[in-house]
Amino acid sequence: MGAGYNLCMRSNVLGTAIAVIASILWGGVYATKELISQKASPLVTLGALYLVGGIMVLPVILFLWKDIMLSLRSSPGLFLGSASLALLADAAIIWSISMMGGTSAGLIETSYPLWTALFILLFVGTAPDAATLLGGGL
């Protein structure tokens, strides 16, 4: 990856804007998953969403195949662990949405920044700064 990529990825302003966009999009995800959960079981929903998502991301996979393979070979256990956590987290989200609705499930699930800070501290060794703690508290 070039220097421009690293500069772009380290920008706090751009990173914040993208995080806000992600937050807005996750609101849409919860709403659509609630609609889907009215018609399908959590397991069927999970399988269907991953199938559709896999098809949607296939062009990216094909375009970046060599880079993806290099990354996977560099840390296969880390990628497997992260993918497993994402799958389990998504299954838990879908299951909770089907049981209590998207709003309630989403409000509870938004405690994840506390867990993120803890895991970053334990695995990476970086403690959150005061601004991050203030933002997380809000």
Describe the structure.
The chain has eight helices and no strands. The protein has 138 residues and is an all-alpha fold. The model has no long low-confidence stretch (mean pLDDT 88).
Q: Determine the structural class based on helices, strands and strand pairing.
A: mainly alpha
Q: What is the terminal separation in angstroms?
A: 35 Å
Number of helices: 8
Question: Helicity level, as a percent range?
Answer: over 70%
The stretches of 5 or more residues where confidence is low (pLDDT under 50) are none
The coarse overall form would be globular
Strand proportion, as a percent range, falls in under 5%
What is the number of strand segments?
0
- The arrangement of helices and strands along the chain is HHHHHHHH
Average pLDDT: 88
Mind telling me the C-alpha Rg? 17 Å
Q: Could you describe the largest sheet, including whether it forms a barrel?
A: none
A few lines on this structure:
With 138 residues, the chain is mainly α. Helix content is 86%, strand content 0%.
